[in-house]
Give the backbone structure.
Amino acid sequence: MTTSSRVLLATSFALLMPAAACSDPDAEVDTGQPDSSSTSTSDSSTTGTEAIDPTTTGTTGTTTTGGDGDSTSTSTGESADEPGPEQYDGEPFDWNGFGWWDWYEFPDAFCRDGSNTGVWVRYGRGPGLVIYLEGGGACFNALTCANNEASYDPWALPYGGVLDEDPELNPVGDWNFVYVPYCTGDVHAGARTDVEIPGVEGVQQFVGYSNIGAYLERIVPTFGAAPNVLVTGSSAGGFGAGVNFDRIARAFPEARVTLLDDSGPPLPDDVLAPCLQQQWSDLWGFDDTLPQDCDECFPSEGGGMAGLAHWLGKKYSKHQLGLVSSTGDLIIRFFFGYGNDECMPKTINLPAAQFEAGLVDLRDNYIADPAGAWSTYLVGDNDHHVFLFGSEFTNTTVDGVEFREWFRQLLKGDASHVGP
């Protein structure tokens, strides 16, 4: 596999915002992680505050501790009956210096139209790895597929927000970064090929979940020693981050692995209709991609996305899982509206009051586990969609808590529920 494109900063076709400020790479900055007094100092491991050496990371077989230096604090909670970590032994990504974005096309990763896709990689000096899943709608009928990209042209990246390299402005600004484009239409959760959809030309390759598996073959050997891993994404990428979190956490068994779902809420079945969830499952293959040991993910009457959130909170109670959403997200209400009237032809968006009630129900009754793995940041009286880019990343404040500060606390394990 070869690197076909390289950029330092790129303009965005989807998100227009000021260029990211560049930080002094040699300056000491607050990364949002525990200080050195709480991390392991063993010579055989990487601590939560040391930068990863990209020339050796993932290639020596060295084990690491979690971000707080306590290897027991990052246990996945697996038992003998649960799947253990998969083995990933692909070729590590090339080392091309700090701060540059490099594009890697994968011959075994595909877009919805069957063309190849891949990932962007940027090395950072900070103590962690970000795996970001891009958003961009979904494909499950003629209208939604017509407004969803079926291929990917790696000519540009968004910038600013969670991609900003300045750790004073972005809690993960100096971390290593893998940016996963979105062109499969299946919220990065599909594993079905040659699918026919009425009114949509050709056959569809819903292989977003399969693609993540191909990427991990190289991500893990490259960054396997990362003491902190953030799995995140926006919109469709937020849903995908949740679906793929279990496999990624198992791929980094000694790391502190954090989930941040940006505007992809897995709401209860009375809001995210079971018939719509079943339609997605049939098209994209959820039966094969949701965690097989999650009984809550496969209720007999259909549905189960809220069950996934609850199950993740129980299994990963010593990790941190976060959700940010506006209480009236217009884009998500549009898509969830396809479940109205038992999935009859769509006429209206999901009502804002019903959507907000679903968020509160999810928070209070599905993820408010005593273990406290989940934290939520709900922006009331707002219909905005996604918060990891643009002014929403820098200017959002709820009940006196800035979003970026909540994000920083999430990485440290100190976040709480904010909002209505």
Q: What stands out?
A: Confidence is low (pLDDT under 50) at residues 6-50, 55-81.
